[in-house]
Amino acid sequence: MRIDYEAKRLACSVNDLIYESGYRRIGVERGDGFRRMWIGQDIHTRRADERAGEDRNYRSEAWVTHTASIAGWEATVSGRIDGLSVDKEAKTIVIEEVKSLHFDLELSALMRSDKLQRHLYQLMLYSWFLSNRPEYDGFELRPQLVLIDIITGDTRLLEAPLELGDVRSAFKASVAGLIEGIESRAALQAAKRAFADGLPFPYSEMRPYQNDMMEAVARAVRQNETLLVSAPTGVGKTIAAIYPALRESLRLGKKLFYLTSKTLQQENAVTALRMMNDGSFRVLRVRAKQKMCAHTEMICHENFCPYAANYGEKMDRTGLVSRIVTDHSYFDPDVTFEMAKSEEVCPFEVSLELIDQADVIICDYNYVFDPYVGLKAFQQESDYSDCVLIIDEAHNLLDRGRGYYSPEIDEAMLENVRLHLLSRSCDLDGWDEQLEELRNHIRGIAEVLSSEEEYVAGEMQIGDAIWPPAWGAQATLSLTGTARPQVRKQALCDLNGRFFLRQRAEWERIILRYITWKIEQRIADEKDPVIDFYFKLVKFTNLVADGGEELAPIIESGERGLKLKIFCKDPSRFLGEIIDSTHATIAISATLEPFEFYRTTLGFPRDRVAELSLPSPFPRENRRVAVIADVDTTYKARGAHYGRIAERIAELASSTAGNFLALFPSYAFLGEVVALMPPTGCNVLVQRSDMTDYERQSILERLRAGGRGNLVLAVSGGMYAEGIDYQGEMLSGVFVVGPALPMVTFEQELLKQYYEEHYGAGFEYAYLIPGMTRVVQSAGRVIRSETDIGVIVLLCKRFTQPRYTRYFPADWYVESPRELVAKRAADDMRDFFETKRRGQLSMFQ
Q: Which long-range contacts (CB under 8 A, 24 or more apart) does 702-708 make?
């Protein structure tokens, strides 16, 4: 919908008039769920082909537009007719609206529902629009609603009498109602604009450089730009992004999305917004579906979940959305959960209903950037033009983006489908043949694995030597992990797009029959391997059909048998489509430099992007950065240095009172050092890969308790290294062991090759920048306020080499990174803390 308030012009679709309100039914095979599947498109295509073959006047997807003056506005309404046949000789026009549905499950309910009336109204509007064209004066109009069974292909025609006068009146009433809503929203928007103009900054004073960031953010939103902000810990990035973006978004009538990769970041955003909100704007926090499920099992289907059953009717009857909006300006997920549960409606669905009512939406990256999870209301043709995005810790979006477009199918998955269907004894013709055909196809592709030379790789040093020695387009790889040997063979492969399109179509028909059987048998599964496989196949096939050069098809043999994977080397095209469609996007992080890397890999549009880099606002003398260069963490050398690394960390941790965090490149590396750790006098807490939420939080609670003498050994890039706000004396120092380069894998080497070909920076883009980003993120855990004091110690000789030190923050040193090399790091650290603590004591004497 496009609205010009000054000229009082409205451009909208027929759907805006017909589907203005209403709640959907919950269940993958219900209503629009079918039409999101490819079979719906297939049905429309086959219908169009059949009609075109029998009627030379027939054409599909015919656009029609009508303009009228209503309530002082000029309204232009357009729509797409599924099928149109104009016979000029007979002066007849047949107008078809095609709807696909499951006759057994949906037809009876459709005939007595408002949905049928909306379908007929849509058909009548198209017919009336055509009747207003001078060239069709005197023609007979024959509107037909065509219903097609998605299982059998059976067709039913519903013809309705066309009363042009009634349609004209209904059209005017619909547009008038739409305009009334627009004018009401305009009045509300004027009030929000006035609130924004008077919105004060929530703190009595600003931190250094905070005003610079706020001016840049405000300018980006006003001027329809995108902005990359690299600002270290202490600038106050959250409030410096939210405050100006909120003001400008409210003034412009845009929705503000605050996107995060971690729950803690969402809590920080909520805190900032609640400080500014007196009830004049609405904030929604979207919580993960699993955590908003009120049922004993997460089975999202109205036949099996009482909170999904009769969802629309219960929502209409209770007026729940209206009550939440009236009573709350912050749509707290806990409150939404309890209110929805009390009315026996799905809390997660209710939270999605609140999106339209919210001015600010706080959620995970997934809800905007994942094409299969995203908020569909904002993803029509990737159009976020009415939205402003703030992407928090934006350096994390790159790996997330790769994951969204890297689907997998493996033999173990196929075997689970086979066993599950055999155990259910359901009568589904053809599933075993399709499964075997897919398995054989994968095995045929896997023949490439036996024809190539193997390379052995692991967590090894790269950059100082060429690896592999002879990289080819069809190379294979064996990976040997240090904790427990595993062998994987991988190779690039060719995929037959037509084969997977045919498989998807066949499995869609099987799935629809399978769902019907489950409903008839009253069988509910929280996790269904058949449904899960189908959606993975859909994702996989969609990307095979895309065929972009950034998508690398890989065949692999390993513990789960053969695996087919599409590895997305570069998600910038997909992420960039969304970013470029927004009114404005603000990406913030302490580590968004070099800007060229993130601008390129995240897909920021070059024609409307700005950049801002800010220095640390904290006194340099409150922080000591040191490099220990007598240890070597490269893959070849680290085995001989585990003991020395353990000794250095023990010396540092025991040199002074405090809590310290030591970060390692991997759990395997961490385990080797822990085994050799000498007595430290500290309470040693070790991160494990299988820790529960309680265990992870208990370590943080130990640090928050106020005591000293804790040494936490963890991994770079993990939860203790990023996103945690270690306030006060929770943390006195961080020891970073090695530059945390990504592990050498087949995929990582594909990245290196891709980046070298496209940007001439293979090693830097694939390994060095991601590794050093982790180092700088880790270092940022120490100094969180202007009164904090702390140390950052980097352990590895590579931290003295220019190719690594060029990524050090400039405020770590005065003239040269070589200043940071320490001969006696533990003694220097002890002296630093004693000097600082004496200075603090003297202030209070």
A: 703/659, 703/730, 703/731, 704/730, 708/657, 708/658, 708/659, 708/732
Contact 136, 172 (CB under 8 A): no
Residue 153: pLDDT band (50, 70, 90) is confident
pLDDT tens profile 399-426: 999 999 999 999 999 999 999 999 988 8
Residues β-bridged to residue 145: 97, 158
Pairing of strands 73-87, 9-13: parallel
Neighbour-count burial for 385-394, b at 16+ CB within 10 Å, e otherwise: eebbbbbbbb
pLDDT in tens, 220-246: 999 999 999 999 887 889 999 999 999
DSSP state of 706: S
| pLDDT tens digits, one per residue of 540-586 | 999 999 999 999 999 999 877 899 999 999 999 999 999 999 999 99
**Contact criterion met (CB below 8 Å) for 579 and 604:** yes
What letter represents residue 182's amino acid?
Answer: I
Query: Tokens 């062991």 — which residue?
Result: 737
Start-to-end Cα distance in the chain: 68
Q: What is the pTM of this model?
A: 0.86
* CA pair distance 378, 355, nearest whole angstrom: 10
Q: Give yes or no for a contact between 602 and 398, defined as CB atoms under 8 angstroms apart.
A: yes
By CB atoms closer than 10 A (0-12, 13-18, 19+), residue 42 is middle
13: left (phi over 0), alpha (psi -120 to 50) or beta: beta
The torsion angle over the Cα atoms of residues 799, 805, 808 and 810, rounded to 10 degrees, is 130
The pair of structure tokens assigned to 132 is 């207003």
Asked if 244 and 251 count as a contact pair (C-beta separation under 8 A), the reply is no
